[in-house]
Amino acid sequence: MKTPSRKILSVVLAVAVLASLLATSVFAGQRAVGVGAVTAAQSTMRTGPESDAAELAQLTAGTDVAVLGQSGDWYHINYNDQYGYLPVSELEVSPTADDLETTGSVTAGTAVVRSAPELTAAGIGSADRYVSLEVTGFESGWFRVIFGEKEGYIRSDELTLNGAPIRVDDPMTEEQIAAETSLEDDPVEQDSQLAIINGSGVNLRAEMSTDSEVLAELSRGTVLTVLDVFDGWYQVQTGDLTGYVASAFVTLAEGHDPSQLLAETLPESSTSVLAVGLVVGSGVRMRSEPNTDCSIVSTLDRGAAVCVMGAADGWYRIDYGGKGGYIAADYLTVSEATEGFSCYALVLADSLNMRSAPDAGAGRVTSVSSGSYVDVSGFENGWFHVSYNGSTGFMSGDYLTLTDSKPAPVTTTTSASSSSSSSSSKGSTSLPSGGSAGRGSGTGADLVAEGERYLGVRYVYGGASPSGFDCSGFTMYVYAQFGYSLPHGANRQLSYGTPISKGDLQSGDLVFFSDSVDPIGHVGMYIGNKRFIHSQGDVRVNSFSPDDELFDEYNLGRLLFATRVLPYINKEASLNTTKTNPFYSM
After folding, report:
1. Which of 113, 118, 360, 385 could bridge 152 with an S-S bond, Cβ 3.0-4.6 Å?
2. E-strand spans in 370-422?
């Protein structure tokens, strides 16, 4: 938010906002009544309106937040999908804003983007949960956003601001670096040469002193020209600025293309994974190309661990959750040998060996099958230090993708009597081998009610628990709660159940779809009235009916078959579509 453009006196602002809060108290805790910019150098966001309440986050000056209400000397706010409080004295608040320069992520399952800040305005599109958007303004409880090439509005209770990531300082202070670094540690020629900033938020100073004026804050990957060398400092030029930077924050490179300097800072590795990167911002966007004009692949939270595969033009090329993309270098702390972090990794190889050392020639500890999740606690020379089922060792980064969650383990239960169809308690039986889902309890309505409990749960590749589902993991989990066993995989679930005749579709039946990769690439569950529930972006409800507000034309066009697990459309030689299949001419 551009603070200088706000010309309303603070006293008038406070009165106006307070009146607005009282008039709209029905939205307290959800819908924003204003926006605020942090004015303190660093402000502590707390769980309650008192100074001894637990700390939620540290927000830096200029951070924009959604204001929900006021409690005494504290504003009730939302930032980065967290609700908390900031002191009134540390926040400049306005009921409207036309000059926001921040980002936000969608918190609703699907948020409708409208042409004006009102519910009756025409919709110009919809944004899925976790999608990151540029936010340019606020009006009447709505955020103005950039949606594709259009400008639109999203309700403030369906989007959380998360721009202005907090700076993460380097572990050594400038004073320590200047004292400990000498010319012998980093010998260079006196002639000018190119270099690159290797830290985040590095100060360019007017003199060789940590007490001197800061001319600029340089981001990781900034290319410099080194003009002279002093004890612990470089005199550098960047753009029109000339100043001094502590030498430990600078990596020298002679005779290299400036666009490739960042890549020169990455280590060699025995696998395709060169290093591990930890995200240092909140709501950091992973993009499809190394620029801000391309599409957003995903939004990553602070502390997320990613595989660094390369670098170019100030961006790191990464892999995360089975997806490839790019993150601006300033939002990633990178290390070739990393310990002390923890996450999960999904095994991508059919049978991946765990070895006793980070080397392909080391002894084999055990083998782990594809689709399994291992616990990750370190990284060395392209290999991850992992543990699985009581065994610890190393796995090659070539066959793992990092993620922040994994499916919950499936418990095993058995029926009290094999002859009773209703004696199975909630839980999952072992996966069947002959295409039978086993005997369970519950009606179609029960399945629907169970599935709707997880509306909004995010999509996670390989996920099969309430912490994250993929499409078949969702249907597998819901059925397992009533004693039915389905395999993981849409194409495999197609073989489990009985055929459905025309006009006989009922709640709880499985519906199957094709995609560009697999003949059967997606599965959902029918819930009645031509609607179905499925995990696609998140768990959501859509409709096959063009007259329904939840109409899903895309999935209607690729609908293929349906089966009933409770009590198999006959499989023909070639798959037909909804245009030729009478199954959905209802």
Report:
1. 113
2. 373-380, 383-388, 391-396, 400-403
CA distances from 569 to 490, 500, 532 (A): 15, 5, 18
Q: Which three-class secondary structure state does DSSP give residue 561?
A: strand
**Bridging pattern class, strands 193-197 and 142-147:** unpaired
Name residue 132's beta-bridge partners: 105
CA gap 63, 160 in Å, rounded: 13
Phi, psi dihedral angles at 289 (to 5 degrees): -135, 165
Q: Which helix (H) or strand (E) holds 490?
A: helix 490-493
- Most confident range (mean pLDDT) of 105-114, 160-169, 403-412, 495-504 is 105-114
Separation of alpha carbons 508 and 537, rounded Å: 21
Phi, psi (5° rounding) for residue 183?
A: -65, -30
Per the rule left: phi > 0, alpha: psi between -120 and 50, beta: everything else, 115 is: alpha
d(CA 227, CA 245): 11
- Give the span between the Cα atoms of 228 and 246, in whole angstroms: 12
Inter-residue contact 142 to 117 (CB < 8 Å):
yes
Q: Does residue 498 contact residue 561 with C-beta atoms inside 8 Å? A: no
Compute the distance between CA of residue 75 and CA of residue 464 in angstroms, rounded to an integer: 39
CB atoms within 10 A of CB 373: 20
Cα separation values, 512 from 491, 494, 522, Å: 8, 7, 6
Q: How far apart are the two ends of the chain, measured CA to CA in Å?
A: 52
Q: Which two tokens stand for residue 38?
A: 């942090």
Q: Is the pTM of this model over 0.90?
A: no
How far is the C-alpha of 288 from the C-alpha of 310, rounded, in Å? Answer: 14
In this structure, are residues 328 and 378 in contact, taking their beta carbons and an 8 Å threshold? no
Radius of gyration in angstroms for the set of CA atoms belonging to the chain, rounded to a whole number: 28
Kindly tell me the sign of the dihedral angle through the C-alpha atoms of 439, 442, 447, 453.
negative
Who's near 423: CB < 8 A, 6+ residues apart? 415, 416, 417, 441
Identity at 309, one-letter amino acid code: M
Distance CA 158, CA 105 (A): 9
- Are 412 and 430 in contact by the 8 Å Cβ rule? The answer is yes
Q: How far is CA 454 from the centre of its chain?
A: 18
Partnered with residue 230 across adjacent β-strands are 233
Q: What pLDDT is recorded for position 358?
A: 92
Please state, as a whole number, how many other Cβ atoms lie within 10 Å of the Cβ of residue 259: 13
* C-alpha separations of 333 from 169, 245, 268, 378, 492 in Å: 10, 19, 17, 15, 41
Tens-digit pLDDT profile for residues 499-548: 676 467 789 999 888 765 556 778 999 998 889 999 987 889 998 888 88
Exposed/middle/buried for 141, CB within 10 Å: 0-12, 13-18, 19+? buried
| Adjacent-strand bridge partners of 44 | 58
Q: Looking at this protein, which amino acid is placed at residue 154?
A: I
